[in-house]
Amino acid sequence: MLETEIDSKVNIPDKNLTVGMEGKTISRLAPAGKAVFENGTEEVFSKQDFIDENQQIVITKIEGSKIIVKLK
């Protein structure tokens, strides 16, 4: 019998993240990518089309596991 184990996880945002918190992109958001906040790295989604790497951003909305950001 075939046995498999899945050990990955869904993007679960840090509970300390709040709307208005500022961070910096560490990859291009097209429209999704990675950003760093004071508590660590998170997958985020751009409210606009694209945001380049090393840009200051701010969280505008958190919908379940989806973090929406815009340029600061």
SSE pattern, N- to C-terminal: EEEEE
Count of separate DSSP helical elements: 0
- Order of strands across the widest beta sheet? 1-2-3-5-4
Shape field:
elongated
Biggest sheet, open or closed, and with what strands and sense?
A: 5 strands, mixed, barrel
Contiguous uncertain segments of 5+ residues:
none
Into which percent range does the helicity of residues fall? Answer: under 10%
* Distance between the ends: 54 Å
Number of beta strands: 5
Strand content: 35-45%
CATH architectural type of the domain at 22-71: Beta Barrel
Radius of gyration: 14 Å
Mean pLDDT: 88
User: CATH-wise, what's the superfamily of the domain at 22-71?
Assistant: Nucleic acid-binding proteins
- Supply the helix-strand structural class: mainly beta
So what's the CATH class of the domain at 22-71?
Mainly Beta
CATH topology of the domain at 22-71: OB fold (Dihydrolipoamide Acetyltransferase, E2P)
